[in-house]
C-alpha cells in the first residue's frame, strides 16, 4: 500500500515538474533582501522620487512615512519633495494621467503596492521588479525605442538608461521538437552608462528594497510585534496546559 | 414567575449581589446551568472536538475586527481600494485588524472543514442529531455567501473578476438567469451598486443569519447532547448514571471543557498569529497577489481563481463540459436502469423513475453544460444536507465500522483536496496525457467520485461486518 502511495506521489511530482518546465518565460533573479538596511532603503527612496515619481504615483504613500526608514522631516523636505510642498501629502505623480496615456499608450500604474502585486510562481514581487528593471534593451521596432525581456512590449522606456547604458540580449539557438527556438543567454553591453553593471545592480537592489518596504511600511513592526505575541502565547499555552491537567487529573 | 430566593443577611456581599440578580433575571442563571455548569458532555472527546469552539472564536474575531474595519472602510468603487490601503498604513494598528480579518476568513474555513469532517468520522449527524447537522450545513452555506461577498470589498482585480465570474454563473440558469444576475449585481457589470449591496449583505444581513443559525445549532446540540468518538449515547435510557442522575460517561462542560478549550484556543492562536505576523499573504493563498491591483473593468486578468476554500467546488464547476454531461447522463441511465430492474418497487414507482430519468436526460441535452456545472457545484454543497439519511451504517463511529471504511474516507478526502488544488491552477495545469487535458480529466473523475461517495453511501455504508460497540465510552484518565 505504502509503495502504491509513494509511486503515486512520485508520478504527481513528475507531472507537475514537466508542466513547470514547459513554461519558457525569463527566470526571475533573486532580489537582495534590504528590508532591514536603512541606508539602502534611503538610497532606494532617493532613486524612487528622482526616477519614478515623475510618471508613477504612489498615491497611498505619504512622504512623512519616510521617517520610518530613518529620515528626518527636514531631510525629506529638503531632498525628496518634488511633487508637493506638504510633507503629509501622498506621492502623486507630476504627469497628467491622460497625457501619459497619450504618450505611452498606457497609464503608468500606481507603485504603492507594486511589490506585493507582482509576486507569482517565478518568485516574490521584489524578484520580479529586480529582474524587470535590469532587463531593458533598445528595440527600434517599438514606439518608445525600448523593450524588456521580463515584460515583452512594455510601454515604459528605460527610465534609468543613463545609469545602465545600452545593452542587448544575446540569444542561443536551440532545437526543440524540430523547431528552432531562441533562448536568452547573456547581456552584451553596447554603450557604457554612468554605472558599472555591479553598481547598477546594487542601485536597483536598493530601489527594489524601497518598493518592497513601501508596499507595507508596517512590515518590520509586524514581525517585531509577532515575536512578542508568540512568546506571550507560548507562556499562556503552558499555563493553559497545566490548568487543564489540574482539572482533569481527578476525572476517572 | 420563579420563586423569589431569600438569602441570609449574614451572606457575603458577593453572594447577596448574585442573589439580587438571580431573583431579577433567572433566565440567565438557568441558561448558565443548562449550557455550561450542568451540561454534561462525554468525557472522551479527542482533538477533533476543538474545532466547534474554535469556529465560534473565529466568528467573534471576525465580528469584532469587522466592526473596526467598517469604521474606516469606504464602500465606494472609487474609494474602496484606497480605503483598505488607508487602513493598512494610516489607521493605527489598522494593518493588524485587517490581517486578523483576512486571515480569519481562511481560518474560519479551515476549522469548519475540520469540524464537518469530525462529524463524518464519528457519525455526529446520525439520529437524533440530524437537525444539528442541517443547521451546521446552513451555517456553511451562509459562511460561503459571507466570504464571497466580503471578498469583493477590497475592490482589487481578483475581487472584481471573481465576483464577475460567479455572478455570471447565475445567468446560466434557464429563463430567469439573466434577470437574476442583473438583480444580484444591480448593474449590467459588477460596479458601485454591486459593491454597496455586497457591503450591506456582508456586514449586516448574512452575519445576522449566521448568528441565528449558530444559536440554533448550539441549542439543538444541547437538547440532544453531544456525540463522541465512540458514537455511544451517554444520556440514553440505558446509559449508566450516578445517584443524582448525571451520566457516568459525561462531565460538566464547565469547568472541564472550558479549560480544555482554553488550551485548544491557545494552540490555535499560536498558529493564527504566526500567519498574521509572519506570512499574512500565506504565499498568495489568503491574500491573492492580483488583489493588490485596483479593480479594472477593462482588463481581465489572465487567470481568475477563487480563494482556496472555494476551489474544490470551483473545480467541479469547471469539470462539467459537454462530454461530462454525457457521462452524467450515462450515470442517470445506469441508476434508473438499476432501480427499475433490481429495485423491489411497485410498477407505478418504476414508471415514475423512467419518466423522471427521461425528462432529466432531455433537459441535460438541451441546456448548456455551463448550467449543469452550476447545478453540480450547488449540488456538491446541497448533498451534505442529506448525509444523515445517506449514511446507513449500523454503527455511528468510524472506530467500529469495518476497517475498509477508513479507506473510503481517505480516498474521499484525497479527491476533495486534489479538486481544491486543481481549482487554483489555470486550465491545463498538468499538461496533456494521451491527447487529453490531464487536470480536467482528473477533476471530472474526482467530481464523479465526490458524488459517488455520497450517493452510493446508502449501499456501501451497510457493507462489511461492524466491530462490537462497547457499552461505555473509552476513557483513559489523564
UniProtKB/TrEMBL annotation, chain A:
TM regions (residue ranges): 223-243
Comment on bound cofactor: Binds 1 heme c group covalently per subunit.
Superkingdom of origin: Bacteria
Signal peptide span: 1-21
Subcellular location: Membrane
UniProt keyword Metal-binding, yes or no: yes
Keyword Zinc-finger: no
Chain positions recorded as heme c binding sites: 52, 55-56
The protein's required cofactors: heme c
One of the Pfam families matching this protein, by short name: Cytochrom_C1
GO molecular function (one): heme binding
Record-linked PANTHER family: CYTOCHROME C1, CYTOCHROME C1, HEME PROTEIN, MITOCHONDRIAL
Name of the protein: Cytochrome c1
Annotated source species: Simplicispira hankyongi
UniProtKB/TrEMBL annotation, chain B:
UniProt binding sites for heme b b566: 115, 217
Binding site for heme b b562: 101, 202
SUPFAM superfamilies, per database record: a domain/subunit of cytochrome bc1 complex (Ubiquinol-cytochrome c reductase), Transmembrane di-heme cytochromes
Superkingdom, natural source: Bacteria
Localisation: Membrane
Its membrane topology: Multi-pass membrane protein
PANTHER family linked: CYTOCHROME B
Subunit structure and binding partners: The main subunits of complex b-c1 are: cytochrome b, cytochrome c1 and the Rieske protein.
Name listed for the protein in its UniProt record: Cytochrome b
Organism: Simplicispira hankyongi
Amino acid at each position: 500500500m505504502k509503495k502504491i502511495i509513494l509511486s503515486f506521489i512520485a508520478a504527481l511530482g513528475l507531472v507537475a515538474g514537466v508542466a513547470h518546465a514547459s513554461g519558457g518565460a525569463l527566470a526571475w533573479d533573486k532580489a537582495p533582501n534590504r528590508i532591514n538596511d536603512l541606508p539602502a532603503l534611503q538610497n532606494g527612496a532617493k532613486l524612487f522620487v528622482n526616477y519614478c515619481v515623475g510618471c508613477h504615483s504612489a498615491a497611498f504613500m505619504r512622504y512623512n512615512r519616510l521617517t520610518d526608514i530613518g529620515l528626518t522631516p527636514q531631510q525629506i523636505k529638503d531632498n525628496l519633495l518634488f511633487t508637493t510642498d506638504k510633507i503629509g501629502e501622498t506621492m502623486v505623480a507630476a504627469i497628467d494621467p491622460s497625457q501619459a496615456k497619450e504618450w505611452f499608450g498606457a497609464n503608468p500604474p500606481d507603485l504603492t503596492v507594486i511589490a506585493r502585486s507582482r509576486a507569482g510562481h517565478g518568485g516574490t514581487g521584489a524578484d520580479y521588479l529586480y529582474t524587470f528593471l535590469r532587463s531593458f534593451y533598445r528595440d527600434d521596432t517599438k514606439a518608445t525605442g525600448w523593450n524588456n525581456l521580463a515584460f515583452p512590449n512594455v510601454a515604459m522606456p528605460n527610465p534609468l538608461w543613463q545609469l545602465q547604458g545600452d545593452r542587448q540580449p544575446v540569444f542561443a539557438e536551440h532545437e526543440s521538437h524540430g523547431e528552432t527556438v531562441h533562448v536568452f543567454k547573456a547581456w552584451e553591453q553596447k554603450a557604457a552608462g554612468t554605472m558599472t553593471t555591479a553598481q547598477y545592480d546594487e542601485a536597483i537592489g536598493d530601489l527594489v528594497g524601497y518598493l518592497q518596504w513601501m508596499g507595507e511600511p508596517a512590515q518590520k513592526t509586524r514581525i517585531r510585534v509577532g515575536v512578542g505575541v508568540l512568546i506571550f502565547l507560548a507562556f499562556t499555552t503552558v499555563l493553559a496546559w497545566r490548568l487543564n491537567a489540574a482539572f482533569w487529573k481527578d476525572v476517572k | 414567575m420563579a420563586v423569589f430566593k431569600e438569602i441570609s443577611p449574614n451572606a457575603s456581599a458577593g453572594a447577596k449581589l448574585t442573589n439580587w440578580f438571580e431573583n431579577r433575571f433567572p433566565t440567565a442563571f438557568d441558561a448558565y446551568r443548562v449550557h455550561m455548569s450542568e451540561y454534561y458532555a462525554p468525557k472522551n472527546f479527542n482533538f477533533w472536538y476543538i474545532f466547534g469552539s474554535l469556529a465560534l472564536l473565529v466568528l467573534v474575531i471576525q465580528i469584532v475586527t469587522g466592526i473596526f474595519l467598517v469604521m474606516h472602510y469606504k464602500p465606494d468603487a472609487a474609494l474602496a481600494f484606497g480605503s483598505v490601503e488607508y487602513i493598512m498604513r494610516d489607521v493605527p494598528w489598522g494593518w493588524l485588524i485587517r490581517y486578523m480579518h483576512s486571515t480569519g476568513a481562511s481560518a474560519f474555513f479551515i476549522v469548519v472543514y475540520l469540524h464537518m469532517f469530525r462529524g463524518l468520522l464519528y457519525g455526529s449527524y446520525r439520529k437524533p442529531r440530524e437537525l444539528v447537522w442541517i443547521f451546521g450545513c446552513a451555517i456553511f452555506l451562509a459562511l460561503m455567501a459571507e466570504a464571497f461577498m466580503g471578498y469583493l470589498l477590497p475592490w482589487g482585480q481578483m475581487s472584481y473578476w471573481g465576483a464577475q465570474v460567479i455572478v455570471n454563473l447565475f445567468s446560466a440558469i434557464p429563463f430567469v438567469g439573466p434577470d437574476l444576475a442583473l438583480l444580484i449585481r444591480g448593474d449590467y457589470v459588477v460596479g458601485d451598486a454591486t459593491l454597496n449591496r455586497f457591503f450591506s449583505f456582508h456586514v449586516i444581513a448574512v452575519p445576522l443569519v449566521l448568528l441565528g443559525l449558530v444559536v440554533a445549532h448550539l441549542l439543538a446540540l444541547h437538547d440532544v447532547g453531544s456525540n463522541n468518538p465512540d458514537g455511544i449515547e451517554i444520556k440514553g435510557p440505558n446509559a449508566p448514571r450516578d445517584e443524582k442522575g448525571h451520566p457516568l460517561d459525561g462531565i460538566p462542560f464547565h469547568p472541564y471543557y472550558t479549560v480544555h478549550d482554553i488550551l485548544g484556543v491557545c494552540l490555535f492562536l499560536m498558529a493564527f498569529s504566526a500567519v498574521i505576523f509572519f506570512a499574512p499573504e500565506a504565499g498568495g493563498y489568503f491574500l491573492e497577489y492580483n488583489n493588490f491591483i485596483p479593480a479594472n473593468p477593462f482588463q481581465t486578468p489572465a487567470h481568475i481563481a477563487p480563494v482556496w476554500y472555494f476551489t474544490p467546488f470551483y473545480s467541479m464547476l469547471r469539470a462539467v463540459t459537454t462530454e461530462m454531461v454525457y457521462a452524467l447522463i450515462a450515470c442517470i441511465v445506469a441508476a434508473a436502469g438499476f432501480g427499475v430492474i433490481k429495485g423491489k418497487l411497485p410498477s407505478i414507482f418504476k414508471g415514475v423513475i423512467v419518466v423522471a430519468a427521461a425528462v432529466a436526460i432531455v433537459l441535460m441535452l438541451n441546456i448548456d453544460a455551463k448550467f449543469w456545472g452550476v447545478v453540480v457545484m450547488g449540488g456538491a454543497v446541497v448533498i451534505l444536507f442529506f448525509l444523515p439519511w445517506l449514511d446507513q451504517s449500523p454503527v455511528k463511529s468510524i472506530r467500529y465500522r469495518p476497517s475498509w471504511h477508513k479507506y473510503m474516507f481517505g480516498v474521499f478526502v484525497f479527491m476533495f483536496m486534489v479538486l481544491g488544488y486543481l481549482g487554483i491552477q489555470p486550465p491545463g495545469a498538468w499538461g496533456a496525457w494521451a491527447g487529453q487535458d490531464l487536470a480536467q480529466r482528473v477533476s471530472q473523475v474526482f467530481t464523479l467520485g465526490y458524488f459517488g461517495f455520497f450517493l452510493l453511501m446508502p449501499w456501501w455504508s451497510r457493507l462489511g461486518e461492524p466491530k462490537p460497540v462497547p457499552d461505555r465510552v473509552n476513557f483513559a484518565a489523564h
